[in-house]
Amino acid sequence: MPFTEFWHFKRQGNDWVLDYIGQATEDIGMLRAGMQHFAQQNGLYYSPDMGWLLLPQRGQLFDKAEFKNSDVNNHVIGNWNSVVVQMYTYIPRKNADSRVEYLIGQVNLPKSYGGILIRRKASGLRDRHLPDISAWRRRRQYQKVSMEWPDFNKHYAVSATDMDKVTSFELLNPGFMAYLYDAGLNISIEVVDNIVYFYTRGQSKQADYAKMLTVLQKAFKELER
Questions:
Q1: In this structure, is the dihedral angle defined by the CA atoms of residues 29, 33, 34 and 37, taken in order, positive or negative?
Q2: Beta strands in 69-215 (DSSP E)
Q3: What is the domain extent for residue 132?
Q4: pLDDT in single tens digits along all 225 residues of the chain
Q5: Total domain count for the chain?
Q6: Is 155 exposed, middle or buried (0-12, 13-18, 19+ CB in 10 A)?
Q7: Going along the chain, which residue ranges are E strands?
Q8: Helix (H, G, I), strand (E, B) or coil at 99
Q9: Which of 83, 160, 179, 186 can pair with 116 through a Cys bridge, CB separation 3.0 to 4.6 Å?
Q10: Could you count the other beta carbons within 10 Å of the beta carbon of residue 96?
């Protein structure tokens, strides 16, 4: 499928060097100035439009993502304390009457865990632009998982494709999950092989970006143990 990019060059001495690559799909209405400012403050790279070619299409969160019908904007990426972190906004259906936006934090895992869903209960994350979770689990052969600590089971629902891998997933420990619950972002987690997505629904503000970055940092430290 055709797409259009704009390559911007700048002069350095006698040479022309690539400055940045812009997308024809950039929409000024989607730009989050607070997210751009946050990236600049923290030495991270910001791009208004992530580009359709980088749109994830695996997992429950991105199950209905479609070229030209979904949108990923406000891409923040950089190396933070030796960890490559990414944040961006995701709109499953940009032309819908009731448009839903997610703030997503992403980090790569040192190994594959198959598929894991850790969904915060009563989070309001259900909307018609995501697949029904029960039907989706059956179709993708996910099994429900009950953890050993009761407080966690009150707040989160877990399902996975591989029971052995989910029990060894380093983030599923009482300390980290208690921190995540108290972070004030209403975050759920999805793991797709070696990528973990932290996501929360609703248009975010600048304070939320700092919280999400801290979540990504803490998650990586847990994975290093």
A1: positive
A2: 71-80, 83-91, 102-108, 115-120, 143-145, 156-160, 188-192, 195-201
A3: 5-224
A4: 555 555 556 677 777 765 555 555 555 555 677 888 888 888 888 888 766 667 787 888 888 787 777 888 888 999 877 778 899 988 887 765 557 889 999 998 888 899 999 988 865 545 566 666 677 777 778 888 888 888 888 888 898 998 888 888 989 888 898 898 888 888 999 999 999 999 988 777 778 888 898 898 888 888 776
A5: 1
A6: middle
A7: 5-12, 15-23, 45-49, 71-80, 83-91, 102-108, 115-120, 143-145, 156-160, 188-192, 195-201
A8: coil
A9: 160
A10: 13
CA-wise closest residue to 117 among 69, 159, 75: 159
Task: Return left, alpha or beta for 45; rule: phi > 0 is left, psi -120 to 50 is alpha, else beta.
Answer: beta
Could you tell me the pTM of the whole model?
Answer: 0.80
Q: Which of 100, 98, 93, 104 is nearest to 70 (CA)?
A: 93
The whole-angstrom separation of Cα 198 and Cα 201 is: 11
Residue with tokens 């919280």: 211
- Residue 111 contacts residue 194 (beta carbons within 8 Å): yes
Q: Which residues contact 53 (CB under 8 A, 6 or more apart)?
A: 3
Cα(27)–Cα(168) distance, rounded to whole angstroms?
Answer: 42
| Identity of the amino acid at 52 | W
The alpha carbon of 6 is separated from its chain's Cα centroid by a whole number of angstroms, namely 26
